[in-house]
Amino acid sequence: MRVTESTRLLxxxxxxxxxxxxxLAALVGGAMNSIAGGGxxxxxxxxxxxxxxxxxxxxxxxxxxxxxxxxxxxxxxAELSGSRLWALGFAVPSILGxxxxxxxxxxxxxxxxxxxxxxxxxxxxxxxxxxxxxxxWFAESREPRAQGRSDAALTATRPPFSFLACQFGVAVYxxxxxxxxxxxxxxxxxxxGLRNIHRMNGLKNWGGLCMxxxxxxxxxxxxxxxxxxxxxMAAGATAGGYLGSRGAQRVPQDLVRAAVVVIGLVSGLLLFxx
Length: 274
Fold this sequence. Notes:
Elements: H1 16-35, H2 40-49, H3 54-75, H4 84-107, H5 110-141, H6 143-146, H7 151-155, H8 161-176, H9 181-191, H10 197-220, H11 227-246, H12 253-273
Helix pairs in contact: 1-2, 1-3, 1-11, 2-3, 3-10, 3-11, 4-8, 4-10, 5-9, 5-12, 8-9, 8-10, 9-10
């Protein structure tokens, strides 16, 4: 492992105000991940703001948000009914890719990762901004092939190898950084012809759960996780993931999406100037 001791922090001492804000960021981030992705664009800058080094912040964010992914997966469990073959197909490349991505992060020198962070944040923010038209364009481009087939019929068959290969690449990115990975999965599912956003979110959350389970496990044993912060954020992320999955249709998303975009753009700029 090329990560040095300088990247490890003593536990950050949080005031009650800081604790509230970091839990709030994790709660909203968990909800955003369950609905559309982009939660890391809230939690990662929050950890950087607390003084956590970038690689440790990334590892801590991944571990903290994983319970939220489990909560959102539970909320969407009914949407995966009849999609056993796709769920199994999703799991293998997600697990393998998540492990490769986490390994690459642990092999990245801290100074190089710090230099990459603003570009990763900006790239994820752009993905978040273009998610809706991107998914719509992919879905329309697949219309002739998917015509006459419901989502249930599509997901009752084995997913094509090309899609699984794509999911492996997405999972590598997810294990390495993760911000925007849900957006990439939704776009790929739309390209495959799926239309039901709830079934798509169920599959997306399952894929994210698999890839982050491996990445989080590797980060736990790396010594990079700031546990006091991670545990506080995990509580918020779990509640946010479940509430987001259950209330996706009741929440006005445009304002939240606009806030995430602003946070991503400003955070990237501040990280670039730091």
